[in-house]
């Protein structure tokens, strides 16, 4: 890692949005994951909602997809880019116990879509938190990480 | 927890923004925390930036404050409310190793500001992630939780 | 109606956001309705989705609630205000055939919430349209109207 | 229509933003129309405003153009895309009586711009509603539909 | 000015949104002004547009009003607050030559509305710039300043 | 300048977003500048903040970069486009006295990025204003202008 620098800071240490105009447009995919840790009782309440027509997971999924589209508004040095697919999956996991969230973002662009996938995960997680907070004050959003990344000059990343 | 239900779902299980019009306006405070886990080398690069005029933490802090103001746009069933203070602190922690983020939100309103404090933490964390992702692909955002909450009918919460 | 003028235009005919600072804060409620007219076959496909965990109506409902919170961003002369409740109901109606949408908005403020209820209805309707447009090019959004309005100086309105 | 499914729902019925990355970029045009039905007296007041420098239709037109640019923020599963032209025309029609709104959106992209044209129409209509609501409580937004659509794999659509 | 500090920086020099929760809600008014300096020929083209139904000034006025409502989204440490009136006036001034913009913002809140009035002025000015930039590359936006401010603890300000 | 017209108005004088679909995508760069005029004492307070970890200029810089990405939301007839680089520099100038702001925007698109560079400058300037307004009521934002523009059919512009 010697010689490495943070590319979002210029030589004076000031923030900048990196110039990507010379990069080619390539297909980019990123997959991120994260968890909301809950009490078993809270998990049971969410599961109970699934029996009915609407449910916590459907709302959180929509929130995650919509947030992915607004990533560059939230993260100061993130480039705005088109999104060709956003997929958010939420599953109830007794093993955690809690909700496991997996988001995939895809585009053809000059920069990657890790931040879009990660933003989808955290906003889905916040939405689950919001919907259970009246019954549980100790929920935790945790383990948010990049799982895979394909396309672009820096090569593929497969973290798990 | 018997008899409890998720207040954001109606009797048919459909999502709803809960009616808070009968609640009094009271002073509300919430404190949330979270972490970005990094390699020691990445932490060293961020610390190095601090020696200069600009730095990763300053950008992440601004991003967190700005995101807190947009919480109700991101989280579907969250009530829009004024914010009378938002404070975001980021510190470098060799013990993690990584960045510890603490956000405080304050208002006088009919509902609490947990989601605003949590949103500030996660967007600050995403911003740190974005600024280090060129040098580290394995950063993790973790341990996002409510630390304290005061004001409102449900009483004080002190989780740690 | 003699002597009436459009309050959103000043004496020169220029647009303005009306000064409401002298008005008292009172409880305001508005209910709006609207329809998406569809072919019976499209309606059947939506109904079929209801058998599964997710569905068109759940997505459209979330979209309507979220849009209500952004009403003053979309409509130039509309005052920003807090929202204490937003409720959006979508039902499948064979009689139309199509989807009937009813939105209720509630706040305590100096101005009414008709526009918030109407915005929820139209954005829910657009979302239904978006989700069926691959199978039907002739859907219509129609009959968007204020049904009821309570609170404020101009008195109650009950249109149906 | 046998064998058709709603492409915005996956095999489990969960919402998704469809993957369009394999589609070619082609020129896309969509034209949508809609109406605001008003009392003849209200129409007269709007017409009177036209005599002066500012007017209801100018404000509604700007609102429609601006809303078209935010379509993908409002409609959960709609892809973000560039817009190369947005044109919104509003005309006073004694025959309705009311305001007839026609919006055209144009881009070069992987997906169509129907939703952008329709969003321009409905937000222009809401803006007219907002500006007349002090003098008329019974305005209706109605007959919002796609008129024409060109470009893309599904071929041309001409509904009227 | 001895002993004064910048209230938006904490004791470590970090940015913060100042805590205003202890301040009373009072009526606040601010008036700001600014100019777009143009060539006489450009001014003539704008004036010519005024003869027709639509015009540059009407679009710029709507843009300024809408921007005032989004002030706290743009300016990091600015408190979100309701707005009870926004008025933007644009006049053509041969003396400059150019466009003179005056914006007034009004609310009842814990903090002032200077930034809202100033934001309305600069976004109106940018809109004029955008509409004339095809015919003039040397327009200047200049002399943006607070003219008056009333309400709040720091007393009235009258700058001209 | 004879024969010239304002391209953002149609033949009836109505606003329109110009059709750029036939234009080629080319590399576009724009540089804009502007100033915040301050009292020497205020300048000294900002300079003092620079000694510490955070500072006024860092916050204003982030605000400018973020605003550039939202230009098409603020300016009604401005085309949405990707941004491949945004750079904002703020320097303290005793000669003004005040803060000199220079913003550069870069993209590959069908239209230029002057408005993005100018928007970055004005929002950075508003942010400086906001952070000093408690100690100085007479700050002025002034001399906002396009300095350079490259790419596109209308050729290079170099104003200084």
Automatic annotation (TrEMBL), chains A, B, C, D, E, F:
The active site is at residue 130. Its EC number is 4.6.1.17. It comes from the Bacteria. Substrate binds at residues 77-79, 115-116. It catalyses: (8S)-3',8-cyclo-7,8-dihydroguanosine 5'-triphosphate = cyclic pyranopterin phosphate + diphosphate. Residues 17-152 form the Molybdopterin cofactor biosynthesis C (MoaC) domain. Pathway: Cofactor biosynthesis; molybdopterin biosynthesis. SUPFAM superfamilies: Molybdenum cofactor biosynthesis protein C, MoaC. Pfam families: MoaC. Keywords: Lyase, Molybdenum cofactor biosynthesis. Gene3D superfamilies: Molybdopterin cofactor biosynthesis C (MoaC) domain. GO terms for molecular function: cyclic pyranopterin monophosphate synthase activity. One of its GO terms (biological process) is Mo-molybdopterin cofactor biosynthetic process. InterPro entries: MoaC, MoaC_bact/euk, MoaC_sf, MoCo_biosynth_MoaA/MoaC, Mopterin_CF_biosynth-C_dom. Catalyzes the conversion of (8S)-3',8-cyclo-7,8-dihydroguanosine 5'-triphosphate to cyclic pyranopterin monophosphate (cPMP). Homohexamer; trimer of dimers. Belongs to the MoaC family. PANTHER family: CYCLIC PYRANOPTERIN MONOPHOSPHATE SYNTHASE, MOLYBDOPTERIN COFACTOR SYNTHESIS PROTEIN A. This is Cyclic pyranopterin monophosphate synthase. It comes from Thermanaerothrix daxensis. The lineage of its organism: Bacteria, Bacillati, Chloroflexota, Anaerolineae, Anaerolineales.
């Amino acid at each position: 890692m010697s010689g490495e620098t943070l590319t979002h800071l210029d030589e004076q240490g000031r923030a900048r949005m990196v110039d990507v105009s010379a990069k080619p447009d390539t297909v980019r995919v990123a997959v991120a994951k994260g968890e909301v840790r809950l009490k078993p009782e809270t998990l049971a309440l969410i599961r109970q909602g699934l029996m009915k027509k609407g449910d916590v997971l459907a709302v959180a999924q929509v929130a995650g997809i919509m947030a992915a589209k607004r990533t560059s508004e939230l993260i100061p040095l993130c480039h705005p880019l088109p999104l060709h697919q956003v997929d958010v999956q939420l599953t109830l996991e007794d093993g955690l116990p809690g909700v496991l969230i997996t988001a995939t973002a895809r585009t053809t662009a000059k920069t990657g879509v890790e931040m879009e996938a990660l933003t989808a995960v955290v906003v889905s997680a916040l939405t689950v938190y919001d919907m259970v907070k009246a019954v549980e004050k100790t929920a935790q959003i945790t383990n948010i990480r990049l799982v895979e990344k394909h396309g672009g000059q820096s090569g593929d990343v497969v973290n798990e």
